[in-house]
Amino acid sequence: MTERVLIDTALRYFLAVVRYGSINKASVQLHVAPSAVSRQISHLEAELGTQLFERQNSGMRLSPSGELLADHARKARLEALRVVNEITGLEGIQKGKVRIASIEGPATYYLPYLISRFRERYSGIHFELIACSNSNVTRRVQEGVSDIGLTLSPPPARGIRVEKRISSPVNAIMSRDHPLATRKQVTLAQLSGYPLALPLESTSIRNLFDISCSRQGLLLEPVMVSNYVNALINFALSGGGVTLFGELSVRHHSDRASLAVLPIKDREMSSRTIEIQTLAGRTLPKGVAAFLEMLCQELA
């Protein structure tokens, strides 16, 4: 049994067009003819007496009325999913799926560790973990395609409930054999004499790093850049130099004992926060709510 049996076909087709941006793309995902999708959209517009989409060369763009219907349809689909999960697991948290969207750092080691622990108690719960950018984490939660989002220092977003927000400063990460490893903290100026491996310029860490270096008049050129968390951490672990991440990114690394994680004495590098997001106004399925509670308790 799936939530599809509780959701009107027209609303399902409407949501598919919203998500994929065109009738043709939606029809491929729905495994129906484009004409079938077009008929359902026309039916909705006729019933509601309003235009739901603005037809553009680039695709289908929601009208103001369409935005309202999209919010309703997403919540209706999520509520149907919750009801189905409750019906199939009436005797407790036996079945269900938890869908998580997260920035890459926590998705690499921290979340897999928590998921493994959770499933020791609730083995019938399955998980989907998607690593993506800050903005895509929030978008997935808003659209109802992810139940829980983990993101860094996000701007306020419509329709988002912040379940927890904590400080998540950027740290210097290096092997325990590194000359700086015995210090209690470091400054960016002290890192200037050592090879640096950094995330790409599009990341929050790199943005804060560049702002701080500019403010202090420092010129620190990385010897390696990567969009892959593991590559940067393993560079530091192998003694190649220093990388920068939040502590959460290495908390459950298999070689955590071989890493030194040092706070950086710096205004910008201490300003980051990590945020747990859910969709505002949604009643979460039992399995999702149970994992969310565990996540909020563990995230400290």
Automatic annotation (TrEMBL):
Domain HTH lysR-type per the UniProt entry, residue ranges: 1-63
Molecular function GO terms recorded: DNA binding; DNA-binding transcription factor activity
Chain segments annotated as coiled-coil in the UniProt record: none
Signal peptide: none
Entry GO terms, CC: cytosol
Keywords of the record: DNA-binding, Transcription, Transcription regulation
Descriptive protein name: LysR family transcriptional regulator
